[in-house]
Amino acid sequence: MNLQHENAPSAGKSDRFSSSGFILAAIGSSVGLGNMWKFPYITGEHGGAAFFLLFIICLVLIGLPVLLAELAIGRASRASAATSYTKVGGPKVFKGFGLLQVIAPFIILSFYIIVAGWTLHYTVLSFSGQLYSNSDFGGQFGSFIGGYMPIVWQAVAILITALVVVKGVSGGIEKFNKVLIPGLVILLIVLMFRAVSLPGAGEGVSFFLKPDFSKLSAEAALVALGHAFFSLSLGMGILLTYGAYVDKRQSLGSAAVAIGAGDLIYAFIAGLIIFPTTASFGIAPDAGPRLVFIALPAAFSSMPFGAFFGGLFFLLLSFAALTSTVSLLEVPISYVMERWRLGRGKAVLIVSVLIFLVGLPSVLSFGMVPGLTNMGGKGFFDWADFIASNILLPIGGLATTIFVGYYWKNAADAAGLSSRWLKVWIFTMRYIAPVLVLLVLLHTSGLITF
What DSSP character marks residue 249? Predict the structure, then answer.
């Protein structure tokens, strides 16, 4: 088998998703760690159900149109994210924007794979009961991330990801998501019922679902818009790349709706897990790793069968993390195969090793190397996150909206929408989405605050 010609993007993307496999893979890219530890917190901070409603509006009005645009560009180009814009007739300047959408997931994966390793480690610790042998959960977490073991788990996570991606789109990514996404759904449902049945859980449910419109503000609107944008994996080349593997008979409009619904349901159930649990045990639902790796283990240690339910929770996080890492890795793999005409096996090996090496400064920035811990107020890990998530991703999304709204002559044919919806989509991409995505960029980069 000639891998170079069978799997290279420029060879016509002969390795394709099935219809259901594509939707599951795209949902898998959006189902990540952020919705588990960030979404519940920002929802509670900005008005509970009122913010959730605002998030839905942003997802429908802006998220889905941009998602559809990325899928349409990818399918029309049958190319990597880096060349997809120019392959469908865009100006050369858009090749630079496309390349940014290869660089961004590469950087994201370099630090995201570290956190994926943490979730795998904590899954083993919880199921074995070792996690609960010492009640100093903050000390345990600090000792772990400040040592060398995270490098081992970083390697494990990138190895699992590489073993999936090396098998190709239909034989690797699709099959992987067809197993993990149903498994993730089962874990979500089990943990949700466990959470809402805890003593005092009703207070957490009320905090999550009771609307407080007084907390809605311009800041809340931008936070909702930003989360809708990022939770759908927009601006990071994933959907451009996945679109190139989609069959021409697949309805992109229906797929976009299904992907958005999957992301929304996951975020909703995540809230029904986090808020009841934190309310039951008197834990502040703070954002970030501290909630997941310190506060929640303390809660699991106090509930019946806590080691088991804690293990299920971290297994859920592992599934969510790995479906995202697989999607992230495919973006630079697609580019490397196209650019240097490499077979998939060689491309996966080279890119995986590079990601591991580039991620070492991030994994060592939690205390092992003091110089990496505080670099202008942020650690190396935090700087990598800030640059990729807050700058590169919005720029990528902005490029997509401008390209579709003003440059792409064949957008109508590629999207496959009815005339009524097509007019709405083009209007959104031309006049609404660019302005709002630019506001997200200015907000996440810190140039405007409220």
Answer: T
